[in-house]
Amino acid sequence: MAAAEPVTATMHIDPAFVVAPVRRRTFGSFVEHMGRCVYTGIYEPGHPEADERGLRRDVLDLVREQGVTVVRYPGGNFVSGYRWEDGVGPREQRPTRLDPAWHSVETNEFGLDEFMTWAEVAGVEPMMAVNLGTRGPQEAMELLEYANHPGGTRLSDLRRAHGREKPYGIRMWCLGNEMDGPWQLGHQNADEYGRKAAETARAMRMIDPDLELVACGSSGPDMATFGSWEATILEHTYDQVDFVSAHLYHEELDGDLDSFLASSVQMDNFISDIVATCDHVRAKTRQRKRMNISFDEWNVWYMREFLQHGVPGEWVRAPALSEDDYTLADAVVVGSLLITLLRRSDRVTAACQAQLVNTISGIRAEAGGPAWRQTIFYPFAYTARHARGEVLRVECRAPLMTTAKYGDVPMLDAVATHDDDADALTVFAVNRSRSESLALGVDLRAFPGYQLAERCVLTDPDVRAANTSARPDRVRPRSVSGAAVDQGRLEVALPPVSWSMLRLAKAR
Ligand code: AHR
């Protein structure tokens, strides 16, 4: 019997095919007062690993290892009913309140000052959200005065009295959260939100014209108002804001793994549609600047049925919400979503995986126990560490696979980054096929002298394999040897359902 033909794919890379610089803000994350992300996530006084401020050092180590660059805070749906003043000052005077967004009790033990301390220790940039649900421009200005004004005013002096002499200098601010969503506290229609966001932005810029402001885009491409929402709110805000936000979560539905593995097609289409709408408003309103996208919530998320029916049970502090256990397949999807975010770095200039710890997260931390890396931690960490310099568009030829949701899609999803100063080229590639190994030929003739420095593959015979506290290293990337560049060509095999990183460096 004749052997089956190997399934081949080719990739051409050229240093001239530049998309944009690699944006460090692509590797953002999100800390929301939701579930156990804050309490028993990043903050747990009394935990054996906690420092004197209650910050978990084991979690901080993982956050640094993950390479997170910017962190959005404090929500999410939470922010739309939040009073930031509740979370500053002496702890014993802070009020305990109901958080209607997550049907939880919020003790306010952790607030702005604690978050800023945590962000400094973690080495991340803060991205702060203001409440435009139950509040408006006045409270946003007051928060800005507290956070960023040097001193000599009531609120800046209050910060100093709380032991924070130097202003925080927070640059990036989100004007509310998912205001298009009927579930949102203070939900508005596009005209109402557009006007409120524009007024808030104008007021904040009167205090500091150099802020970078994000207007709320759609909560996803399936929202009935998607497109018209962006068009309307941008007509109100275009000259006042720098970004429009995008949110999108993926999940495997009805056992349709093929469509799930092609999830990045949906993200890519979503970005194209937002860009088209932004550019339409730009032309219509005769603006010069191009609007960028802050993709400030994205991930794989299964445990969200309570969004329809409400969070069950009593009002408690930090209930375990959306603690998804991620599989190898989820990690491969996260890897390809990162490939998309990089490939669209010309317009997506900030992005936050939602969320950082426990809730919809790549890091799991047990209360009083250990913290470990979920499968989705790895493609994020490796991409954040090795995507450097400029993003290069790669020209690929690959066989197609048929999916129920997205039609025919290429089995191969890939991007490259090139750091000219360091003579380093990194290729990130996903094989979406469940059945075929791809024999990939990479044409590197435009990179004379480059050799393979490292090849890592994240795969597993069981696509449902996950990491647990008992087996925290069940799924992790493995180094693979045996391939080399020969006459400007590299041949590697990409196993079915896998994420790979190929690092090449110029021989010196
Ligand atoms: O990240 C979880 C939630 O998802 C956020 O609070 C909200 O913005 C989105 O719907």
Your description of this structure?
The protein is α/β, with parallel strands linked by helices and 508 residues long. It folds into two domains: 7-15 and 391-506, Immunoglobulin-like, CATH 2.60.40.1180; 23-386, TIM Barrel. The chain contains eleven helices and 27 strands. It has helices at 57-66, 112-122, 137-148, 154-161, 190-207, 228-237, 257-261, 263-284, 306-309, 328-343, 377-386, and strands at 7-12, 18-21, 28-30, 70-73, 97-99, 104-106, 125-130, 172-175, 212-215, 243-250, 292-300, 316-317, 348-354, 363-365, 371-373, 390-392, 395-397, 400-403, 407-410, 412-419, 424-431, 438-443, 450-458, 478-479, 485-486, 489-494, 498-506. Strands 3-4-7-8-9-10-11-13 form an eight-stranded parallel barrel, surrounded by six helices. A seven-stranded antiparallel beta sheet has the order 2-16-20-21-27-23-24, covered by helices on one side. The longest helix is centred in the middle third of the chain and has 22 residues, at 263-284. It starts with 6 loop residues before the first strand and ends with a strand. The model has no long low-confidence stretch (mean pLDDT 96). Residues 32, 34, 75-77, 177-178, 219, 297, 354-355, 360 line the site of alpha-L-arabinofuranose (AHR).
